[in-house]
Amino acid sequence: MTDLLYLRDSYLKEFDARVVATRGESVLLDRTAFYPGGGGQPHDTGVLRWDGGEARVIAMEKGNGAWHIIEGEVPETGTEVHGAIDWDRRYAIMRAHTAVHVISHVVYTHLKGRITGNQLYPAAARIDFNVPDFNRQKAEWVVEEANKIAMEGHEVNVEFVPREEVEKHPEWVRVDPRLLPDVEVIRLVMIGDIDVQADGGTHVKNTREIGQMVVEKVENKGRNNKRVYVKLI
Ligand SMILES: [Zn+2]
Fold first, then answer.
1. 48 pLDDT more than 70
2. 109 and 222 in one domain?
């Protein structure tokens, strides 16, 4: 199994690893800081370098282990490589991820709604809510509240807890509970003492790093599905 370094350190930009296996243009490493994609957060891109070679990481395979899909030379199994993720892009995605958690906290607390889907982009996000009476005005209010909370400067921390503990706290699960990974230990992302969510993605250390959230567009996707586009400035 690949040691997923980003789960413990979202700010790790570079790392050393060893090639465990290769398959066509894909490389499996024993450890990685590359986020493989999932939960609405896109995979990372970046570069692998080794003695006498270099390749771009253009995508990640989903599924078993963290397979890096590369463009360029393919290092042999056993090669020691140095990986570097495209940090500016990743950091902008981290800001968007924490922003979505703060927004979902406001929607959950004040409108009793849950997120039914989301897609993160660098400094932007698309969020689907199951809130029946939602409109542009409510979206503006939610994002204004989220901005106030973000500006309070809450620290963001990660904790690993047993699955049964999470099952006792349905409020920690903002996505469909069936989407929780089938593992015994669940990772929690905590925003100060105001919000806890089961989550496998990467986040900023402090909500002030989010910047200002702005509503771009609100779409009605049906009675129980409202789609909001937010960007960060
Ligand atoms: Zn999340």
1. yes
2. yes
- Domain membership of residue 14 as a residue range: 3-85
List of residues 6+ apart from 182 with CB closer than 8 A: none
On the question of pLDDT at 74 being above 90, the answer is yes
Q: What is the CA radius of gyration of the chain?
A: 19
Banded model confidence at residue 179, pLDDT cuts 50, 70, 90: low
* Same domain? 31 vs 66: yes
Q: Do 80 and 100 belong to one domain?
A: no
C-alpha 7 to ligand 1 mean position (Å): 12
Q: Measure 156 CA to ligand 1 centroid, in angstroms.
A: 12
In the reported structure, the alpha carbon of residue 200 is separated from the centroid of ligand 1 by a whole-number distance in angstroms of: 7
Measured in Å, residue 87 CA sits from the centre of ligand 1 at 19
The pLDDT confidence band at residue 114, using thresholds 50, 70 and 90, is: confident
Residues 172 and 130 in one domain: yes
Report CA(50)–ligand 1 centroid distance (Å). 33
Handedness of CA 194, 200, 206, 211 (dihedral sign): negative
For residue 45, give the CATH number of its domain: 2.40.30.130
Compute the distance from residue 75 Cα to the ligand 1 centre, in Å. Answer: 33
What's the gap in Å between 210 CA and the centre of ligand 1? 14
Task: Tell me the three state secondary structure of residue 101.
Answer: helix
Total tally of structural domains belonging to the chain: 2
